[in-house]
Fold this protein.
Amino acid sequence: MIIANRKPFEEIVDMLKPYKRILLLGCNECVTVCAVGGAKEVAVLSSELAMYRAKEGQPIDIKEHVLERNCDPEYVEALIQVIGDREVILSMACGCGIQFVGERYRNIPVLPGVNTTFYGVTEEHGVWTERCQGCGNCILDKTMGICPVSRCAKSLFNGPCGGSQGGNCEVNKDTPCAWQLIVDRYKERNMLHRYLELQPIKDWSTSRDGGPRKRVREDLKI
Amino acid sequence: MRLNYPTNVKIIKVPCTGRVDVIHVLKAFEHGADGVFLAGCLEGECHFLKGNLRAKKRVAHIKTLLDECGIGGERVAMYNLSSAQGQRFAEIAREMTEKVRQLGPNPIKIEKGSNN
């Protein structure tokens, strides 16, 4: 899923300074699961903003709404009945949702309430970690299901760098070295010989280096 | 026991402090409460195992949120006591009331008052 962090409160307050009637928009998908932009978080931010603005003597009128998804046109379309007299939308969806809503409703600013950070998993309740970078050419079959693109700070393809210490990455002592994990997994499965297979230089044109990506399936088009 | 505690303390009953969510406490402040305290069971004695420990973490989080929006995190507190400690409850109610009185009214109410 897509993981995000809520923006600092002061930044949100600054963005909303000129506005009085806001629509605080959440999303029921990824940002709900990573507890940053679902109904609960929308309610909490709404309450915080209402208290802050009341205290400052600039009361704010907040309408809360949560879309099933912010990245599909049918749900975004339904927003037309909710926007009404709102001057601005503060979206707590990921960057995709924020932009998609903005593309549909061009006469109203759509501001980001979160910083979208990575594609990850819930390691335990309250802990999310990165697993994929969407590089467009998956090599998990060659690396025992552990992705060196996203989990190695340098995205190395042929073993660890000198910064791998005690199984951890030098960039952050709490981050396991992806290549240590891969080699451990090779050993577990008695496949250490595969470590010797050299990976060729990666063609990054399928990743962000090739520019914004697009996927089309003609058979699904209506 | 016929114990006395300040009449400004209004009790909201929940099955366990683990039921108390962040938004419940924020709404209390939004509606003008000057302070909120959670009275949970003693640590390690939760009937639901971890309810009071969860509440403790939530209170810590609520403090940061209240600081952020200028209400003040010191207006919320977590206490642990057993249901047999009526004396302690009255003591906490007095202690919290005194603390909140020193902090003054909820800043939202001050602002609303100044507009009248």
Q: What stands out?
A: The radius of gyration of chain B is 15 Å. Residues 60 and 77 of chain B are 9 Å apart (CA to CA). Chain B touches chain A at residues 21-23, 26-27, 29-30, 65, 68-71, 107-108, 111-112, 114-115 (CB under 8 Å). Residues 17-115 of chain B form one domain.
